[in-house]
Amino acid sequence: MKILLASKIDTGALEILSQRHDVVSGVGETEAALKNLIRDREALIFRSGVNITAGIMACAPDLQLLIRAGSGLDNVDLDYLRNHDLKLVRIPQPGARAVAELAFGMMLALSRQILVADQLLRKGTWAKHQLRGHLLVNKQLGIVGLGNIGTLLGQMGLAWGMQVLGCVEHPSPERAAQFEAKGLHLTDLNTVLSTADYLCVCVPLKTTTSGLIGHDELAMVKPGSFVLNMARGGIIDEAALSEALRQGRLAGAALDVHQTEGENQISPLADLPNVVLTPHIGAMTIDSQREIGRRIIDIMDDFDPAEQTPGGSAPGTGHPL
């Protein structure tokens, strides 16, 4: 098939893909350039960081398949996809574990002030007695969004001796029972906010979650808690978060995603020593990217336009639009 690669993928996977298919790279290109490159393409592979607009897709009359090398769909015009019966396949599982592990690492970094200790020691300051931290055991881990990432993070918390509660957009007795069987207690958002010692946001960005955690919600968070955002920058109001941190109502925060991302962007929280910041690296492990690459190859090799039905999932993924 004729493929447009709009984002970087594992180099080994790209080599194999290029041997089996006609691959054109549009990595780092402007929307205007992508519109030109996609004109004769049948498949599009992309990640976060590039907006797949209706205008881009409309320039590809032969486009049949889109592969999201990850999970989030906030950078895709989903209405255009549905209206034109285009196949979209996500690959959420490999990145989910990587994001969950990063979140857990951030909780440890916050609770033990690891970054502060490192910076002080590099300056010659031996602050052993000043850097008292917290244990995670017996603490409440509150997760907003018990999807792939949230569930994995919750299971890690349980293994560490934490008590885990979370919320989902569409709760039901059946879902509650499923989570309880895993040791995760399903409750409502307000309870999660007011109970958690560590509050981790893991929901996708969409109309119903944009601005989900603002001034009012952060005011409900238990004083002295830590807040983590592993989802998307538009879900937590960073100005409200900054205010809560500077007023001392929160003990710290960690953000892998930001309201404004990209080169030369400096977070408004960057001057706070009790904040951990990373540049959207949640899924960026060698292992996860290799696995995503392998799945991209399988999806492309197995894809048969004649066997597809609108809205279905590609072979082996189980993750339709």
From TrEMBL:
Query: What PROSITE patterns does its record include?
Result: D_2_HYDROXYACID_DH_3
Statement: the UniProt record of this protein carries the keyword NAD: yes
Q: What CDD domains does the annotation carry?
A: PGDH_like_3 (cd12174)
Alphabetically, the GO molecular function entries are: NAD binding; oxidoreductase activity, acting on the CH-OH group of donors, NAD or NADP as acceptor
InterPro entries on file: D-2-hydroxyacid_DH, D-isomer_2_OHA_DH_cat_dom, D-isomer_DH_CS, D-isomer_DH_NAD-bd, NAD(P)-bd_dom_sf
Q: What SUPFAM superfamilies has UniProt attached to this entry?
A: Formate/glycerate dehydrogenase catalytic domain-like (SSF52283), NAD(P)-binding Rossmann-fold domains (SSF51735)
What is this protein's name? D-3-phosphoglycerate dehydrogenase-related protein
